[in-house]
């Protein structure tokens, strides 16, 4: 097989420019982000703003800003494939969930915003990219998040040039401090996406303490008035838009899980090589060698699945099932790998001074959000079986 100068799925000969960007991100994480995390309180839940601000300035000056946001709107303009390659390197640190770099690389607006009009992009996306605003996406509700077609109860009633939104959203990331976000609600024409200001009258949020350090929120909308001009696309287009967003989100989760898995294995190898029990290094233990071998196979397989899904998305194919496969495999595999490395570290693996326990909690959540492992398996199987899989509902 002959190597090419651009990324092709037949061998993934990465172009030099992409390798350089990925290497630059890896060095930035290793030399700037990890030392900043290590210097802080081991019990901290995120990097403080005074530490994060100069990292953002530096990352932006290097062109490492909002990776998948189009260049014309202020981002790095990376394709889905390029993004997953870079995100794997960007995730090799403690606070890589829910944002790679802990926010040092900016907060890319939801990809759905760029399906809107130029006026909507100018009003919402450009300021978010330029100033690093957080945004949110509100799909899930107390009635469920896996099946939004049936679970969404939030309503959007049109009155003249406005809609009035009423309902309750749950498990929403960043809503408590976001400038705006996308709310999916049931209008007369079906599920529809709306751009909603974070400080809109009638919108309130409450944080929900969970296992990971970054807590989601419950959002209540009480007669929230939204201009028709804030609707993205036509009424009823919301589920299609949400599907596009989910593909990218699942690819992001897969890539970051790979980065965590790789970094945990690196830490594990160092430990196994230096730690001795009963007079011999842990590295001589066959069970440790088996764990490392299984990790290597799982990581390489996950990278193939993730790159294939991203390449399919970039080339106009339907990447929904492939993205589901990537997210399923990578989050499950990374969780197992981190768990095994924690076991070899013993009590130290549970300590806050190590990133392993933090990743363990993040990955436990990652196996549920943006499609639980169970629903992803259903999606994959239904694609394989066709109409026969739906006979029993």
Which secondary structure elements does this structure contain, and how are they paired or packed?
Elements lengths: L15 H24 L9 H13 L18 H11 L27 H14 L3 E4 L9 H4 L3 E5 L2 E11 L7 E8 L2 E8 L5 E5 L9 E11 L3 E2 L5 H37 L1 E2 L2 E2 L4 H29 L5 H26 L1 H4 L5 H11 L6 H13 L8
Parallel strand pairs: 1-4
Antiparallel strand pairs: 2-3, 3-7, 4-5, 5-8, 6-7, 9-10
Walk me through this protein's architecture.
It contains eleven helices and ten strands. It is globular, with a radius of gyration of 21 Å. Helix 3 (80-90) runs parallel beside helix 6. It folds into three domains: 16-131, Acyl-CoA dehydrogenase/oxidase, N-terminal domain (Butyryl-Coa Dehydrogenase, subunit A, domain 1); 135-232, Beta Barrel (Butyryl-CoA Dehydrogenase, subunit A, domain 2); 239-390, Butyryl-CoA Dehydrogenase, subunit A, domain 3 (Up-down Bundle). The N and C termini lie far apart (45 Å). The protein is of the alpha+beta class and 393 residues long. Residues 1-6 have low confidence and may be disordered. The strands form three sheets. A four-stranded mixed sheet has the order 1-4-5-8, with helices on one face. The protein has a four-stranded antiparallel sheet with strand order 2-3-7-6, with no helix packed on it. A two-stranded antiparallel ribbon has the order 9-10.
- Portion in beta strands: 5-15%
Largest beta sheet: strand ordering: 1-4-5-8
Number of domains: 3
Helix count from the secondary structure assignment: 11
Number of strands: 10
- CATH class of the largest domain, anyone? Mainly Alpha
Report the mean per-residue pLDDT as an integer.
92
Distance between the termini: 45 Å
Work out the helicity level.
40-55%
Largest sheet: 4 strands, mixed
Query: What are the low-pLDDT stretches, counting only 5+ consecutive residues below 50?
Result: 1-6
CATH superfamily of the largest domain: Butyryl-CoA Dehydrogenase, subunit A, domain 3
At CATH level 2, the architecture of the largest domain is Up-down Bundle
Q: Which outline best applies?
A: globular
Radius of gyration: 21 Å
| Helix-strand topology string | HHHHEHEEEEEEEHEEHHHHH
CATH topology of the largest domain: Butyryl-CoA Dehydrogenase, subunit A, domain 3
Q: What is the structural class?
A: alpha+beta
